[in-house]
Design goal:
- With about 250 residues, the protein is of the alpha/beta class.
- The protein has 9 helices and 7 strands, in the order H-H-E-H-E-H-E-E-H-E-H-H-H-E-H-E.
- It has a domain of about 160 residues: Vaccinia Virus protein VP39 (Rossmann fold), CATH 3.40.50.150.
- The protein has a 7-stranded mixed sheet.
- The radius of gyration is 18 Å and the shape is globular.
- Bound molecules: S-adenosylmethionine (SAM).
- S-adenosylmethionine (SAM) binds next to strand 2.
- InterPro entries: SAM-dependent_MTases_sf (IPR029063).
């Protein structure tokens, strides 16, 4: 029998770098634009934020849209922070999430690229598993992800994965980043797997998810040094997915 793939996880000190709300405004804007038809305001249904960190997105969705939310995250400090904000939060794994049947939309805000395994194939398997956990639920998935479109096919995301997941290349990267800070990455030595738009679209479709909406994020600055990774465009885009086997609207 095939062994389950083990996720390569960031250390607590690396996860701490995500304790900020810099991306929440655009995530909520995209969510409101793309997911409003799938949430019943005033109903008990939950919007679940998988890898929801300190709960900033969940708190904003509840505060602005009046929708109850639940965060699922592995990091204990993040879970404590959510609870301080009055957000329901469960310390659990995105690969085996608790499913209660009260979920309407399940969000993956900037988490899929962290579900990395020892190879590119096993990484895709982990990312697929996180989505698959919701396959038989009557939910829509909202995915907000970093997009790295490349001048050469889908090369940029692959190069970043190869460098960040290799101990040796990451040590070199760390040294270079002392001189060129824009090359700094808190994922050095563990790995991160960004993808191009077309790559994410193929990925979702190939795993049986219909992409019902896609919103392009604003262009982010790419330094000259990072352009050496053939990065043509760097953004945070959002997608809404519906399982092909589900008949819900
Ligand atoms: C880049 S942060 C994103 C935080 C927040 N969603 C945002 O958009 O700013 C990734 C989050 O995913 C969480 N995470 C990583 N792997 C996970 C897993 N297997 N299960 C649950 N949470 C995970 C981390 O603890 C972290 O809070």
């Amino acid at each position: 029998m095939a062994q389950p793939v083990i996720q390569r996880k960031l250390a607590n000190v690396q996860v701490k770098e995500f304790y900020h709300d810099l991306f929440v405004d655009t995530q909520v804007k995209h969510f409101e634009l793309m997911c409003t038809p799938y949430v019943k305001v005033g109903a008990a249904d939950r919007v679940v934020d998988v890898g929801g960190g300190c709960g900033f997105f969940a708190a904003a969705v509840t505060g602005l849209l009046g929708i109850p939310t639940r965060v699922i995250d592995l990091d204990d400090t993040s879970i404590e922070q959510c609870k301080k904000l009055g957000i329901e939060a469960i310390q659990s794994d995105a690969l085996q999430p608790p499913v209660f049947g009260d979920e309407s939309v399940v969000c993956f805000n900037l988490i899929l690229h962290h579900l990395v395994g020892p190879t590119d194939k096993s990484t895709a398997q982990l990312q697929g598993t996180a989505l698959e956990a919701w396959r038989n639920q009557p939910v829509h998935l909202f995915v907000n992800e970093y997009i790295y479109d490349s001048y050469i096919s889908n090369l940029s995301g692959k190069l970043i994965y190869v460098i960040t997941s290799s101990r040796i290349l990451s040590s070199v990267g760390n040294l270079v980043a002392r001189i060129i800070p824009s090359l700094k990455a808190n994922t050095f030595g563990v790995g991160v797997r960004f993808r191009a738009t077309a790559e994410w679209l193929d990925f979702f479709e190939s795993r049986g998810w219909r992409v019902t909406a896609h919103t392009r994020g604003e262009e982010e600055f790419v330094s000259k040094a990072r352009r050496l990774l053939f990065i043509k465009s760097c953004r945070r885009d959002s997608f809404v997915l519906q399982a092909r086997n589900m008949a819900h609207s």
